[in-house]
TrEMBL record:
UniProt keyword terms in alphabetical order: Disulfide bond, Secreted
Main localization, broad class: secreted
The protein's name: Complement C3-like
UniProt domain Complement C3/4/5 macroglobulin: residue ranges: 30-128
UniProt GO cellular component terms: extracellular region
Record InterPro entries: A2M/Complement_sys (IPR050473), C3/4/5_MG1 (IPR041425), MG3 (IPR041555)
Keyword Disulfide bond: yes
Domain Macroglobulin: 212-294
A UniProt-annotated Pfam family: MG3
Length: 339
């Protein structure tokens, strides 16, 4: 009979223990309760006298005593077993968290007792501080330094429905960082820590990342239409190609200025300043003979010098600005005249 009663109790959703004692008149006292007693939560304890043939009511005192000294009753209740309830009864007890250490790594116990008129049943039971669950959400998973972090908390306890009304659930919320601060000028991984104030032994955490925004990197290649600028050339073209490091073409604008290097000093051609559209990674800049002669009326003076081009590329979304420099020589004659 005992095994069938225990199975029925387990089917009610309990992981429980049964503790019984056979008396001299062949009646059996039974104490059944969860394997874990949660603090700040009403727990149900079952007591029974089996095979009891007398008519007298049986008072039973149920207690939770501090472990290991048994010097303090942490919770108590009483039930009366009689013929009407088939000598079975349920008692409700609630253990307060204030009676225990706040050390989250320490296992803590109580003595659970059922005092029958002639017998005391007693069991050591582990205490659980899991009085509920806290779910934490943030509006993003990655944040920039100094940005605002929006978060919300859902808390559930065994006796309450899902709720966003944080105050009556009595929680503490803290923010901490995990990563070594010397690896960066600011912590990279942060976490929000929430706990029920009455059960600080159990914490609930949510981690998020904080990092600086790094502009996409790209490279610019300058390819001249000719390796030299000849004094009788009409123009000089430069092909501009801009590609992100991950292979996608850059759309944006190139700011171009040509000039000449003579005796180690650079002198620009002011009329050569131009703004070039970069579409699908490509653009073309052009230096004309007239732009040179606006600064050097006798273009032959430049033979033996170097012409340079300075290019700065700004992406379409203003994500990055890069400057590049290229130079090539000035020759007296076109190449085909030397053939």
């Amino acid at each position: 009979m005992e095994s069938s009663r225990t199975m029925s109790w387990t089917q009610l959703g309990f992981n429980s223990f049964d503790f019984s004692f056979m008396s001299a008149c062949f009646s059996r006292e039974v104490l059944s309760a969860p394997n874990l007693l949660r603090v700040e939560t009403t727990e149900i304890v079952f007591v029974e006298v089996q095979d009891y043939v007398q008519e007298n009511a049986i008072p039973v005192q149920i207690k939770a005593m501090n472990y290991p000294t048994k010097t303090k009753a942490l919770a108590s209740t009483s039930v009366t077993l009689n013929r009407e309830n088939n000598f079975q009864g349920f008692g409700k007890i609630q253990i307060e968290a204030t009676d225990f250490s706040k050390d989250p790594n320490r296992k803590q116990y109580v003595y659970l007792q059922a005092q029958f008129p002639n017998k005391l049943l007693e069991k050591i039971v582990l205490v659980s501080f899991q009085s509920g669950y806290i779910f934490i959400q943030t509006d993003k998973s990655i944040y920039l330094p100094n940005s605002k972090i929006m978060y919300r908390i859902f808390a559930v306890s065994p006796v309450t429905a899902l709720s966003t009304s944080v105050p009556h659930l009595d929680m503490d919320v803290q923010t901490k960082y995990l990563q070594n601060i010397f690896q960066s000028i600011f912590p990279k991984i942060w976490k929000i820590v929430a706990k029920f104030r009455k059960t600080p032994q159990v914490s609930f955490t949510f981690e998020f990342e904080v990092k600086e925004y790094v502009l996409p990197s790209f490279e610019v290649t300058l390819t001249p239409g000719s390796p030299f600028f000849y004094v009788d050339s009409e123009d000089l073209t430069v092909n501009i190609k801009a590609i992100y490091n991950f292979g996608e073409a850059v759309d944006g604008t190139a700011y171009v200025l040509f000039g000449v290097v003579q005796d180690g000093r650079k002198k620009s051609f002011p009329d050569s300043l131009q703004k070039i559209k970069i579409l699908e990674g490509d653009g073309v800049a052009r230096l004309t003979r007239e732009q040179i002669t606006q600064t050097f009326s006798n273009i032959a003076e430049l033979v033996g010098s170097s012409i340079f081009v300075a290019v700065s590329v700004l992406t379409k979304n203003d994500e990055g600005l890069k400057s590049f420099f290229f130079k090539w020589g000035v020759s007296e004659w076109k190449r085909d005249r030397h053939l």
